[in-house]
Amino acid sequence: MTDGSANPLDEPDDRPDDGPLDADERGSLAQSRTFYLEIVTQQDQLRRVPLHTELLIGRSPKRCQVVLPDNRVSRVHLRVQRDPDRGVTVTDLYTANGTTFDGRPLEPGVPITWLINQTALIGETRITLRYGTTGPLVE
Q1: 54, 73, 99, 119: which could form a disulfide with 123 (CB 3.0–4.6 Å)?
Q2: pTM value?
Q3: Which CB contacts under 8 angstroms, 24+ apart, belong to 56-64?
Q4: How far is CA 39 from CA 19, 21, 26, 116, 117, in A?
């Protein structure tokens, strides 16, 4: 029985309702969603970096795929890995200033599971694992 009031879950979305998605449309939607790191620097600059298999994060442009110009970040500070069996893991690489992960220090050299929306803090830089459509990415 309905009372005539609007259900907030029935709000229209921006996509025209042309019926169910076909296989090509589902494939395109799935391909546009990805794991990525949302990086906010000490100057509040935002970067989004896709996570394919592995990223090294630190100050060294020769050794790291993600370079952070922060003196409290080690030359090679973090390893982030994405593996189909283990999911996404983050490892502090025995750094001088360490890594804070969701408010707790990471034990150096020990990979831990990184869940979506959890944040690592290295130096003054916040790095959050995200999943979804990202808009423009920085490779």
Answers
A1: 73
A2: 0.74
A3: 57/122, 57/127, 58/93
A4: 37, 33, 29, 14, 12
